[in-house]
Each structure stands twice: as structure tokens, then as C-alpha cells.
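Section 3.1: Structural characterization of target chains.
Under the original work plan, the team committed to producing a structural model for every single-chain target entering the pipeline before any wet-lab resources were allocated. The record below documents one such target. The sequence was received from the expression subgroup and is listed exactly as submitted; it comprises 321 residues.
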Amino acid sequence: MTIDARQFRSALGSFATGITIVTTRDPAGADVGLTVNSFNSVSLDPPMVLWSLAKKSRSRQAFIDAGQFAVHILSLDQSELATRFASPLPDRFAGLSLERSEGGMPLLRDCAARFQCKIISRYEGGDHDIFVGEVSAFENFGRPALVLQAGRYAVAVEKPERPLLNYGVASGDAGRNSITYLLARAYYQVQIAIRPELARRNLSETDYHMLTIVALNGPCTAAQVTDLIAVSGHQVSLADMQRLAHRQLLSLSEKEGADPIVQLTEAGRESMVRIAAMAKAIEEDAVTDLGYTEVDIFKQMLRKIIRRTRLPWQKDPLVSN
């Protein structure tokens, strides 16, 4: 049976693996490191781990000569670091704040865990060398780990002991852990911070929603504004849009017998730019404790929830992709 290498690699990709960066220091004192997802444990007593390296790798001889290596299990916000150490850069360590082992090996910060090892065996495994190391020191930082599956970065999420369907409002703490409650509370707590600015501009939250919809979607019909804002639970009419037009924040191109086209005026655009800058600062503060990967995954999950719960008549280009 002939094995297709590409299909074989794709099949292996269905197995989710952690992502590591393995580092060492060559005899000349230069730091060496690369991204590896073949890391695995071998033994608990004595503590031993292994990883594999392509024989054609430029780093191969450095690891053989050094006789030691450090394995860093990357945390979920270190995907950019994984990409850096997988790229053919002249100095992958440039600009990084490093620690050093007693043997001088470069140690990366902010990872999920890291292990310092001495090489005790090296085996041939086809087109790879398998390095087996005895762990001399290790640190577990308790951060969520980055995962690779099907060639893409992912995050391992703990599976709840009970199905989410068992969580109901009547169950006390479980009700406070429901998606509906958490989304609503997060929204209102973030929204509170922007209310003083809206009051200063004599804008209600409904006014703000109308201006935001037109700002994000560009010129649209009054009916489209009404439909899009209905998602928030607010109800608006043509009279509400005309009121903002009277304040020169919106313009309505009204033609007899046709649905008016609504768009921002220059004054409306200036107001939204200022409010948007404040909203962005509030959002960045709200996600301070989240890494880049967490924020991106959170946005993806919200889009999926929006698509799944959208009613048939709702057409929202903001979540169409």
C-alpha cells in the first residue's frame, strides 16, 4: 500500500497536540530554538520526555552538541511566538526578554510550563531524530495551553461535568452561570461607562444604536435601520430618524413613495468617531486580562451565537462571515 504523504499529514492533524518551543545553546554560545509539536512524556520515574527533530533541520547539530534542551509549553496567547520560531528568521530571539538556566540555555517567559532536560538518548526515526531527555528542573505556571489541530491554533477547553442544558435560572448559582445572564451583565457593565458621554451629547441609548448601525453599515434604508435595531430590543420609527436629522446627525433622502435612505452627516460622523474612540478604550480596558488569542476566540464564539439565534427575517452583514 502506497501512503500519500500529504493525506497522511492531514490525518495526523486531526489529533490535537500542544505546541512547544524547544531551545538550547550551541557550543559557540549562540541561542537556538524552534517550534515543536512532537513533544511527549516518556516516564515519571525517572522523569523523562521526548521530542523529534527533522534530520535536515539546521538546528540539529546544535542540539546534538549541546547535550541539553529546554521545552516550553506555550500558553494560549503565545501563537505569535510559535509562528516566529517556526519561521526562517536570522534571530528568533531578537527583542525577547529571556531567563537563563544554570547551563546557560535561553528560557522563555509567560509560557504554560517549561522543562529543563539533559539528553540521555537519541534515536533514528525515519527522517527524524528522536531526542530523549531526563528532566532536571521544571516549572508549571498554570496558564491555559495553546493547541494545534488540523494545522490551526486552538485552545483546549475543559469539558463541564454536567451538560449545559442542566443549567437553569431556578438552579441558583447555575443560573448566574448561564450564557444569557453573563452576556447581559457584561454588556450592561461595559455600557454604563459610556452613558455619561451620551448624556453630555443629549443622546439616548436608542439614538446611539441608530447612529452606530448607520455608521457600521453605511447608507441604508429606514426599514433596514428599524430591523437591525430591533435585535437590541429597542423600537424606532421614521420619526426618531427624522428627529436626529433635525439635529443634523443623520440625513434622510426622502422620495415620495420610496423608503428613505439614511446616512450620517458630517456632524454625525464626528460625534460617532469621538464616541467610538471612547468605546474602544472601554473595550480594551474590559479585555485587559485576556490574551490576543482569547479575544479573537471570544469574538468568533459570539458571531456563532448571533448566527445561530438570528431570526429568519434578520439580515445583519456584520455577522455574515
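The radius of gyration is 27 Å.
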